[in-house]
Specification:
The protein contains twelve helices and eleven strands. It is α/β, with parallel strands linked by helices and 406 residues long. A seven-stranded mixed beta sheet has the order 3-2-1-4-5-10-11, sandwiched between helices. Strands 7-8-6-9 form a four-stranded parallel beta sheet, with helices on both faces.
Length: 406
């Protein structure tokens, strides 16, 4: 590989551990003496085209160490979709800064960016090593068991459901139902993670609606009525991208981003939680609540499982090691070692495949009813999200008889 500098950026929505991956890339490049400088692009590929760079290799060691526990995307992010006219400018800057190693931390669209930039440079005779570092709370990246950031977001959702579920249970005389929405455009991994909150029969969530299974208004109302008859209240968790039977979004949104992905709320669109809340209220006459956390699950550093932090960092270092070994055109992946005890194993997947494929929840993780998960999914999730706290429960003992005249 021709000697040169390394360039790294972050793209798409953040996670609570994306900066740990950044620290892994930078420290991995420095330890491998990969290039003369390690540069960071401010605000993704969009900022790079504006020449907005920061020298990460010259940051203080304590700053790089602190990155592992810093939420959000410290370099700034972007959702810019590359256009044909962008590539000459990108190649010009790569040459200008003598960049030979190109790392991006992100999801499907980010992997598409790395793949296209690397292919464009190769086609014009410019030697560039392009590596992808996985990141997404949606957990829908192809080729990897799970993505850094998903375990933290899953724990956030599970804890939120555990705590808000107790609130909903205790406030059932005021609000008979609650609808909680999670992010997840086409995959239900995060909504499904709410099921980890259950400790016993009747605990929240009672209904889990996933984008992988379509709904009908009649079915939703029937589910809620039966749940209230059985438990006295109803807790619903839905992914933002749930669909009706005809394929239309429950949220009723028509907004699209630059990658033609559906926008839920960010551009004035509606939301699935509000739509379901309205449907249930009008059909039953009952009062209920809704909770839409949007991007909070992407930046809750205080709820990060240590395994997620260490895996995010390891993915960054692994990308640097692959680059030093001459690899290109791949994304780092996480697998599981055989056996009952969870242990991560790192591998690679082709950027060309990751960029055009997604990973929905498999059928064996979704209950036959379509509104819950299976024990197999909980077994998959537990070692990632970690143990949840337990809370007090009163013994259902009748009080002693009251004596005296009143």
């Amino acid at each position: 590989m021709t000697k040169g500098n390394a360039l790294v950026g972050q793209s798409g929505g953040p996670t609570a551990v994306i900066n740990a991956s950044l620290a892994g890339v930078v420290e991995g490049c420095l330890d491998a003496s990969l290039g003369d400088s390690v540069l960071g692009m401010r605000f993704g590929i969009e900022g790079f085209m504006e020449g907005r760079l920061v020298d990460l290799g010259r940051q203080r060691p304590e700053t790089l160490a602190a990155l592992r526990r810093t939420p959000s995307s410290i370099l700034g992010s972007s959702r810019h979709k590359l256009r044909d006219e962008d590539f000459p400018r990108i190649l010009e800057l790569l040459k200008s800064y003598e960049i030979r190693y190109f790392f991006l931390i992100g999801g499907n669209d980010t992997m598409d960016t790395v793949h296209r930039v690397e292919a464009y440079c190769r086609g014009r005779g410019y030697e560039l090593c392009g590596l992808g570092v996985p990141k997404t709370v949606d957990n829908d990246l192809y080729g990897t068991d799970h993505t850094p950031g998903f375990p933290s977001a899953a724990r956030y959702v599970a804890l939120s459901t555990l705590q808000s579920g107790r609130l909903a249970r205790d406030m059932r005389r005021v609000d008979s139902f609650v609808v909680q929405q999670t992010v997840g455009r086409e995959a239900g991994w995060l909504a499904a993670s709410s099921a980890l909150a259950r400790r016993s029969e009747g605990d929240a969530p009672h209904l889990v609606y996933l984008p992988e299974r379509r709904l009908s208004p009649e079915g939703v109302v029937r589910d809620v009525r039966l749940c209230i008859e059985r438990h006295g209240w109803c807790s619903i968790v839905c992914g933002e991208g749930v669909l009706w039977e005809d394929g239309s979004p429950v949220s009723q949104t028509r907004e699209r981003d630059k990658f033609q992905n559906a926008e839920f709320g960010a551009m004035g669109g509606s939301s699935a939680a509000l739509a379901l809340h309205r449907l249930i209220r009008e059909a039953t006459g009952l009062r209920g609540e809704f909770q839409i956390t949007e991007s909070l699950s992407m930046c809750a550093e205080d709820r990060v499982p240590e395994a997620d932090r260490s895996e995010a960092y390891a993915c960054g270092r692994r990308a640097a090691e692959l680059a030093a070994a001459g690899a290109s055109g791949v994304m780092v992946t996480i697998g599981r070692a055989p056996g009952l005890r969870y242990e991560p194993v790192y591998g690679t997947a082709s950027l060309a495949e990751v960029a055009v494929r997604a990973k929905p929840m498999p059928d064996e993780f979704i209950a036959e009813s379509g509104s819950d998960v299976t024990p197999a999914f909980l077994d998959y999730l537990r070692p990632l999200a970690g143990e949840l706290p337990g809370y007090a429960e009163l013994d259902d003992l009748a009080p002693a008889a009251v004596r005296g005249d009143f």
